[in-house]
Design a protein that fits this description.
728 residues; mainly beta; Phosphorylase Kinase, domain 1; Transferase(Phosphotransferase), domain 1; Methylamine Dehydrogenase, Chain H; eight-stranded mixed β-sheet; five-stranded antiparallel β-sheet; 13% helix; Quinoprotein_ADH-like_sf; nucleotide-binding
Amino acid sequence: MPPLRNTGADRNAEQPEYAGDYRLQACLGAGGMGVVHLAASASGLRLAVKVVHARYAEDPEFRARFRQEVAAARRVSGAFTAPVVDADPDAVRPWMATLYVPGPTLADQVKRNGPLAPAELRRLTAGLAEALRDIHRAGVVHRDLKPSNVLLTDTGPKVIDFGISRPVDSDLHTETGKLIGSPPFMAPEQFQRPREVGPAADVFALGSVLVHAATGHGPFDSDSPYIVAYQVVHDEPDLTGVPAELAPLVARCLAKEPGERPTPAQIMSALLPPSYAAEAFIPAQRRRPALPHGEERAHDEPGPTPAWDADTPVRAPAPAPPRRGPRLGRVRLRPRLTLAVAAALALTGAGLYAAMSPPAGGGSEPPARPDEVATAFTGWHTTLQMHGPTAAPACTHGGGALYCAARGVGLARLDPVTGKVVWSLTGPVEAESPVAPFLLADGLVGAAAPADPLRAYAAADGAPGWAAGPVKPPELYVPAGSAVVLTDGRGGVRAVGSQDGKELWRHGLDGFQAPRPGPYDAPSGLLTVSETSADGTHTRVAEIRPRTGEQAWQRNMPGDLDPLGRTGDGALLLASRYQASLFDRLVVLDPGRGSVRELPLPHRLDVRGVAVRGAVVHILEADGHLTAFDTAAPKGRVLWELETGAGNVSTPVTGPGDRLYFSVQDGRLLAVDTVRGALIGQTRPRLLNGRLEYAPLVPPPVVAGDRVFGTAPDGSVFAVDARDPASW
């Protein structure tokens, strides 16, 4: 599936490669406000660069808020925070660069290794109290202290993300009508009296953070932010599991009235004399027994704390719910709906394609053989030959085999049950992003490195078959049933038979000067082609019969449109481009009836890829924000949204059992429940030599029966059990 076209002249037109003069090397994470990238200064300093989401960059109020964040971060010293190195809040995409601070967040540490030991907890308490004292002395109230905003380093804890902080002397802290923060770590006055929020609110948050660090859950715990809000205001905190020597101090921090809470200096005094002799915090690693050779380690499940964003609005609590409410499922409330999407990877390198779920009785891949759907499945991973910079292999499945291409490996066949390499062929080492192979007719598999001719090989042993080329300029190709359609970007269009590679036809298409191939619909046997005018005001869309090149229909439509594929009822779905990778509406075209419906999106989305199941479009943005959008509703509607926290991701793909999967550039594979909109599993990162480098394209995972196959920048291909993502 191809990447988005870059139609802008600016180098930040799509997911930016630069912030100012800093080249963004890799995505470190994403949140409600922006994406954090790894970068380096001219002198070699490693930086963490936060780039604001495109959808917020046009909001004057948000820009003011980001300027406030930059100012607040600059006011505090770097002893307990990440120092600001550079920033430009007035850029097209506002950004801020801070010194990169290596170390896990407290949230990740507790999630992966469990609650902290008493001595570690005491050191954390002292370190955070010192940090708050420093922050408050600078006249800043953080207002969003939580485990994910605390970095654990060998020089002590660091407090980060001043996105909703306010200087004490600023008028902005008296704003009304917006209660922003993370409910489990908000003080009662943040719900009741937002005008009166001061330094004591950070102390209350410190108490909640310490309970989480000591027990793995917060003092007020529920999946509903409304119930949490009520508990914070009315109920006593649950301190079960907090060490006895620290419980009284934590209880004082969690006092309902701000005046009853200790100051950071008083907390530090209460900890004297120090029992830890000024040792720095070094995250302890829980040891695990070794696994048999070839078996995959199960990834830790997410912790119980709901991952609400700092800018999640929460109303004042309603009266009298029970102390512990029922588990209502995660509620994600945002001032503006935000959608999540994934990076598009393609066979052809043109246009934006949707990952389509095969309709009943349709699809190009045959159903899984009985021996492929085993009752018990053991995960595996296999490393293919790798050379040069990192690049994850790209794979496809069919006919009972897994076929992959990697740097230095033009094509390899793997046994999907064991991961054993059946055969492999040498390929170019200079290719930046491997191109996924694809199935052809009569036991053939097709493969091509970028700019190389398309070639067919015998699936059984990799013996060379036919070759469609060479042709210059390089062609884009799309497998389309019994044919492969190739375009050269200059108006030349042709098709070859997938069985023998013989040319079926070669001619231009009426009404088109340089058509680009789009998705192929197996049930109808039609291939979409499109061409947008030079000024971007209209797009010509048609569907052709791949064996003959004959047009089934053609239509000239307003706007810069990218075909996504067909919905479950046979309608053609297109995305309307506002600029570069930003889309503002979906267009549903019924070719048979000629009817057109325009469905406005809640705001402009920085779309990287989509997956369609029936009438529902799952949109994955560049920052890893995922949204389910129902196109069957008269004006469209958002079913759910999910902040995955992943950046630089693959195209999402759907699978059996209401599941959706996508890959991340660090080698993780994520699974989402498409009914609830919940993250239900993820694998561990797999990096080459532990390095996280920028990946221009991330190959999507492959779903086959009860297995999901992922790839990673360490050159590996791995398999996990699709039936139990929580065990990954």
